[in-house]
Design goal:
alpha/beta, Rossmann fold, 3 domains, 5-stranded parallel beta sheet, 6-stranded mixed barrel, 18% strand, 23 strands
Length: 526
């Protein structure tokens, strides 16, 4: 997030797009509710009528995968009405003229035709967002999990820069991370192209710096994304895979392909706190400790680094992840001799400029938001004050591209996937809880009442859902939350695994699969 969670409640306008906030990020949703109580305009843009839409001042139900077209239409209105911040654009950005030429093609009428959102609503969203004192954008995986995910995010950045809603309190472009330490994992180099602190592996100075710090020869080649690693297992170019805290047998698209790839591994190691469906395929399972059984830090969605303290000793043979990795490394011949997480954090501070001022003593209390460049620095609540990290903010001229897969006569329904409040991700933890499991014990398929009537399907009846990749049977939930022609499934349930159906087509830049859009057929189960 460019800004902090607390700042949301003082925003004058909030656009929530591709985020089922009350379900997946309820504490963030609380701040949005407080903002509304203070008079903020709340706009919810989502293909599904989520709970937050019931509280919104305006709910725009766009077609799947039409986000760029809709956002371009909103920006067309802002420019044509003269609502953009011309001084901000002139002084702090570049690339505006090329961007403008593309935006001129997306009249509200064209954007409405592509997105399904009315011209009136497009104009209203543009007015509220551009003319409020402090406007904030909140988004989640409904924006990123597309073959155009990078384009979607850049379009949101364009909108914020166009109106000067960046680099100030209660503004910004604010992605909500899907899990509690995804931000921290990325910060620490858990990506194939960077060292800790997003320092590119193919920059010679970075390579030399980390070779000196770690006393090892390092590659300057960008590594493999998860889809590419699975592809490598299938074609034999990758021989072994070490999976830590991930459950691709439920979470990854086209699960049949995932299973086939994992079974090709000469060595599959899974390190986790439960014996997940992925761990059941492993040659070696290493029992990791849960959050309550270890010390360390988590970095949350607002870049806040916080202490994690052990409440109980690890159960059974479990160990903290860092201890397992250290021992594996030592046995492979690369010595690690850390005595505690505090020692690891000291090394992090030494090689990661954005963490340079962070140590365990300073993390007492609420923690610190990076960048925190030295031990006197108080941390940085919001980013890009005064100037962008790259100097000038860059406008991107982005054309709308349709999803990778479209409906047709054989597969006439659009399918999207997501979460329900009582379950979490692949259910590794929540499905161990009898209370949570009672709340949401099985998967379901949301279907519009008109579609259900035409198919003569009633609530609770089983249906067979088929895509070009697989088939599952699941019960129907008849609801107006989805429009005619659109169906929705949660992906938590291995026994009705939505990711048997989803499309593995990826964003060409980020490598993120298109979980949010695919084509399916639905039929009564015999």
């Amino acid at each position: 997030m460019t800004n902090t969670i607390a700042e949301l409640e003082d925003a004058d306008c909030i656009i929530v797009i591709g985020s089922n906030t009350t379900s997946s990020h309820p504490l963030v949703a609380t701040r949005i509710f407080r903002a509304k109580q203070k008079g903020a305009k709340v706009v919810v843009i989502d293909p599904r009528r989520i709970q937050l839409a019931l509280k919104a001042d305006l709910f725009a139900q766009q077609k799947l995968g039409s986000d760029v077209a809709l956002l371009n239409g909103i920006m067309h209105v802002i420019i044509s009405k003269g609502w953009h911040k011309q001084d901000f654009v002139a002084e702090r950005t570049e690339g505006f003229e090329d961007f403008r030429k593309v935006i001129e093609q997306y009249t509200p009428e064209r954007a409405s035709e592509l997105s399904g959102v009315s011209v009136e609503d497009i104009v209203t969203i543009a007015d509220w967002y551009a003319n409020s004192k402090s406007s904030s954008i909140v988004y989640c995986m409904g924006i990123t999990q597309h073959t155009t995910g990078v384009d979607n995010v850049k379009s949101l950045a364009n909108l914020a820069m166009l109106t000067g809603n960046i680099g100030r309190p209660s503004t910004g472009v604010n992605p909500l991370r899907g899990q509690n330490n995804v931000q921290g994992a990325c910060d620490m180099g858990g990506l194939p192209n960077v060292y800790p602190g997003y320092q590119a592996v193919n920059v010679p100075a970075n390579k030399e710096k980390f070779e000196a710090a770690w006393n090892a020869k390092l590659s300057d080649k960008i590594g493999l994304t998860i889809p590419k690693a699975l592809e490598g297992l299938s074609n034999g170019s990758v021989k072994a895979l070490y999976i830590v805290g991930e459950n691709p047998m439920v979470s990854d698209p086209d699960v049949h392909h995932v299973e086939k790839a994992l079974n090709c591994a000469e060595l599959l190691v899974v390190q986790d706190i439960f014996l997940t469906p992925t761990a059941q395929l492993a040659h070696v399972v290493l029992p990791g400790a849960s959050f309550a059984e270890k010390d360390g830090t988590f970095s949350n969605t607002e870049r806040r680094v916080q202490r994690v303290r052990r409440a109980i000793n690890p159960v059974g043979e479990a160990r903290a992840d860092w201890e397992i990795i250290q021992e594996v490394s030592n046995r492979f011949g690369f010595p690690m001799q850390y005595g505690s997480p505090a020692e690891i954090m000291a090394e992090v501070a030494g090689v990661t400029p954005s963490y340079a001022g962070i140590n365990f003593d300073r993390l007492e209390g609420e923690g610190l938001c990076w960048p925190c460049p030295n031990v006197e620095h108080p941390g940085t609540p919001f980013l890009h004050a005064g100037k962008f990290s790259r100097g000038l903010g860059l406008f991107h001229a982005i054309e709308y591209k349709p999803p990778a897969e479209a409906v047709d006569e054989e597969y006439p329904f659009w399918l999207s996937t997501g979460r329900v409040p009582a379950q979490y991700h692949t259910g590794t933890m929540t499905r161990q809880s009898p209370t949570l499991e009672r709340e949401a014990p099985e998967g379901f398929l949301e279907m519009n009442p008109q579609d259900a009537q035409e198919m003569d399907v009633r609530r609770g009846e089983p249906v067979r859902v088929t895509s070009r990749r697989g088939e599952i049977t699941v019960r129907v939930e008849v609801t107006s939350r989805v429009t005619k022609g659109l169906v929705f499934m949660p992906f938590h349930y291995v026994e009705s695994n939505a990711n048997m159906l989803t499309n593995p087509a990826c964003d060409p830049i980020a490598g993120i699969p298109e979980y949010k859009v695919c084509a399916v057929q639905v039929a009564k189960a015999s």
